[in-house]
């Protein structure tokens, strides 16, 4: 929190701009198992995320980015040319650029070795490029002309494929003919060319599967389409992304498997079917292992399952949001109890995956480190922290200094397991965890998770201190942010989440818990070790604001002397006074003349004429205001006081002004809205129902000496009761989607104070219910 004001404005903005942002998807997903460190980049478009599936724009390395076509040309040129030279020819050159005079390394090699067939092929391929696209916009292309031009090229490609001596070039010409036929929508030619050249099981060239991709679109049998998609997916990484969309999960798997000619093809079908699922895929994982245990897709399917499990378990466990990508029935209520019950169910499923992993011989796996790390992680997911730490200890012995990615991954899991492994009531930030936190301070969700584990173990102080670090990280907003809820939320609303430590402790912590934060900070303020400097860097600047927060919390529970003692802790009058000065224009527009003064909250209600006319506005702060309220309460309680009606009425005005409807909301709230929000704050009902105000208007009524003043007190009690009824019985209930008909009549019939006023003070009822302009006259009629 850069400043007190910023924290309040953020809370307000969360409501003001609620329609513009609410955390969902990747904003809320908790993931500590990084898929990008396991050398499975060819599957990166299928990493588990709420964007499934999306093209990965950040390749792990240049080597990973080399596709089958590029790699073929590198090998064709005996690896004597650079990948940049190959890409320049494939993607940058046009037909006229392919000449003997070119400085391109690849072309120089082909001309030097007098490979005329390869050069002729490249020229022909460039000639085909402009025709191989769909575009039915007659303003840009003459579609009638394109079709015969493509047909001519198709025939030429077939002829050339039969002439060339190089088998791979023959495949290339056939592929060009098939591709051109696709854009010509000539599916019969696609089927014929594919069957003549590529159908044989002995053909394994990547061009076979590139051609099968177009053959797939010529097929009407949906089961066969799925079969083709699965084989393309495994054998042509460059076509995986698009092939996956052709795999229809609604087609029965049994009908697809009938087309498989061997176990490997069955494994391919199970692999793509498993990847397409967003729910549990252990069955598919086992089937891939059964039919092709050497498949690199097996490791990826495990990785994807781990990422799913951590979303199902840790997103709700740490944030209380439902999983970011959930397959749960939408009709299920997302109460905290329901969400956490699901978490336990998903932990059990994680145990099933762990049991499967324990049957695997890691030495025979293509990615043994992934399997070992998954095993350690799943022990943590299943709350078996001891075995998790044992597995991590074994792994740490094998990590080299250069292997920082895997070692840091394990350190993150180790830090969480160490923290979670502590006893409730005795948990703290362990020395072994401190350097891991410092190293990963920019990983907000990790820092939050450690804080949350401590909070669940009863250490609210260290939890808050770690939450305070989330605001200091300089990442752009919503980039790796931690968003979370509290179990104290009564129901869903737009601002029912947190992303700032101050908002959270403001809403959820007790005054005593905030006092502990201050005390802990003071006890450690002289420590100079790196972790302590990091841990307390923000909070030590926030002490005055935390004093104000504690005072505000005591106001909320009506412990005024306690509140006064904290408002008085800042001896600097200007700073103390600014607590209210900063916000006075927010809660009383008419009092913003000099930006420092307010109407007397004991004699004026918001948007209501004063009970006592004021010539000057007051300069006020929380300390002064609370002290004055206490003094009026003491006078009202004094048996010798003759003006109990007067002081109780002023006290009631004061309490009314501290509610949603008054001019001093800042006494109870940091940031507020123009509609009802069931915040998890202890005084939420008081804030919207004005119960204390009604109580003291009632005391004023009991001590009133005149009928008119009694009528005014009754009118104000009715006003408070109306606020309570509006809060208790909203006109439209968003939970049940029910509307109360004749709402005003419904409220009046339930308001016993208005009925009493009308029955026993008929003349005054007409005057007082017509508007608030008569309040002052009735107040003056007190004697």
From TrEMBL:
Superkingdom in the source lineage: Bacteria
Keywords: Signal
Signal peptide interval: 1-18
The protein, known as: Uncharacterized protein
């Amino acid at each position: 929190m850069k400043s007190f004001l910023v924290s309040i404005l953020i809370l307000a903005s969360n409501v003001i701009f609620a329609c513009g942002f609410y955390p969902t998807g990747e904003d809320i997903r908790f993931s500590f198992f990084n898929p990008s460190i396991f050398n499975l980049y060819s599957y990166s478009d299928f990493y588990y995320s709420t964007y499934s599936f999306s093209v990965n724009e950040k390749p792990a390395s240049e080597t990973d980015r080399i596709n089958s076509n590029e790699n073929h040309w590198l090998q064709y040129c005996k690896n004597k040319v650079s990948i940049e030279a190959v890409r320049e020819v494939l993607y940058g050159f046009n037909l006229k650029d392919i000449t003997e005079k070119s400085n391109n390394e690849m072309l120089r090699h082909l001309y030097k070795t007098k490979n005329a067939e390869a050069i002729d092929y490249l020229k022909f391929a460039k000639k085909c490029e402009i025709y191989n696209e769909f575009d039915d916009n007659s303003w840009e292309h003459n579609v009638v002309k394109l079709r015969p031009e493509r047909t001519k090229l198709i025939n030429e490609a077939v002829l050339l494929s039969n002439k060339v001596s190089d088998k791979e070039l023959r495949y290339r010409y056939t592929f060009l003919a098939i591709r051109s036929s696709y854009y010509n929508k000539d599916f019969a030619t696609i089927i014929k060319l594919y069957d003549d050249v590529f159908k044989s099981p002995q053909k394994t060239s990547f061009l076979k599967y590139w051609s099968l991709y177009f053959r797939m679109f010529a097929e009407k049998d949906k089961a066969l389409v799925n079969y083709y998609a699965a084989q393309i997916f495994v054998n042509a990484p460059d076509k995986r992304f698009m092939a996956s969309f052709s795999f229809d999960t609604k087609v029965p798997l049994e009908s697809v498997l009938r087309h498989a000619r061997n176990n490997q093809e069955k494994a391919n079908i199970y692999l793509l079917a498993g990847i397409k699922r967003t729910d549990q895929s252990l069955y598919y994982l086992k089937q891939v292992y059964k039919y092709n245990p050497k498949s690199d897709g097996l490791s990826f399917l495990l990785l994807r399952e781990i990422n799913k499990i951590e979303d199902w378990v840790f997103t709700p466990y740490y944030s209380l949001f439902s999983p970011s990508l959930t397959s749960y029935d939408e009709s299920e209520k997302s109460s905290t109890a329901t969400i956490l019950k699901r978490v336990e169910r998903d932990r059990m499923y994680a145990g099933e995956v762990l049991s499967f992993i324990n049957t695997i011989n890691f030495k025979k796996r293509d990615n043994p480190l992934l399997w070992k790390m998954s095993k350690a992680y799943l022990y943590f997911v299943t709350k078996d922290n001891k075995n998790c730490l044992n597995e991590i200890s074994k792994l740490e012995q094998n990590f080299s200094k250069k292997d920082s990615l895997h070692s840091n991954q394990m350190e993150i899991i180790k830090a969480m397991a160490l923290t979670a492994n502590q006893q409730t009531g005795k948990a703290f930030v362990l020395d072994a965890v401190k350097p891991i936190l410092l190293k990963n301070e920019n990983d907000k969700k990790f820092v939050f998770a450690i804080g949350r584990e401590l909070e669940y173990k009863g250490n609210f102080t260290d939890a808050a201190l770690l939450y305070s670090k989330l605001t200091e990280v300089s990442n752009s907003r919503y980039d790796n942010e931690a968003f979370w809820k509290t179990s104290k939320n009564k129901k869903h609303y737009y601002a029912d989440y947190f992303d700032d430590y101050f908002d959270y402790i403001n809403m959820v912590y007790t005054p005593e818990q905030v006092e502990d934060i201050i005390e802990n900070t003071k006890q450690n303020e002289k420590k100079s070790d790196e972790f302590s400097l990091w841990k307390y860097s923000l909070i030590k600047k926030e002490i005055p604001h935390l004093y104000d927060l504690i005072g505000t919390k005591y106001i909320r529970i009506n412990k005024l002397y306690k509140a006064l003692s904290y408002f008085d802790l800042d001896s600097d009058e200007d700073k103390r006074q600014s607590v209210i000065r900063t916000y006075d224009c927010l809660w009383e527009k008419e009092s913003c003349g000099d930006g420092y003064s307010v109407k007397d909250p004991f004699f004026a209600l918001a948007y209501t004429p004063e009970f006592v006319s004021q010539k000057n506005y007051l300069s006020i702060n929380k300390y002064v205001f609370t002290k004055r309220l206490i003094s009026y309460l003491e006078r009202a309680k004094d048996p010798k006081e003759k003006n109990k009606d007067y002081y109780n009425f002023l006290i009631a005005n004061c309490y009314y002004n501290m509610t949603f409807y008054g001019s001093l909301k800042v006494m109870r709230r940091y940031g507020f809205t123009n509609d009802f929000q069931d915040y998890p704050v202890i005084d939420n009902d008081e804030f919207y129902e004005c119960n204390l105000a009604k109580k003291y208007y009632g005391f004023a009524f009991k001590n009133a000496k005149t009928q008119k003043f009694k009528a005014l007190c009754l009118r104000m009690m009715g006003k408070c009761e109306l606020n309570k009824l509006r809060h208790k019985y909203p006109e439209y209930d968003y939970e049940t989607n029910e509307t109360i008909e004749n709402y005003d009549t419904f409220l009046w019939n339930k308001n016993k104070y208005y009925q009493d006023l009308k029955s026993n003070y008929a003349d005054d009822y007409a005057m007082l219910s017509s508007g608030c302009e008569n309040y002052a006259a009735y107040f003056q009629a007190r004697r």
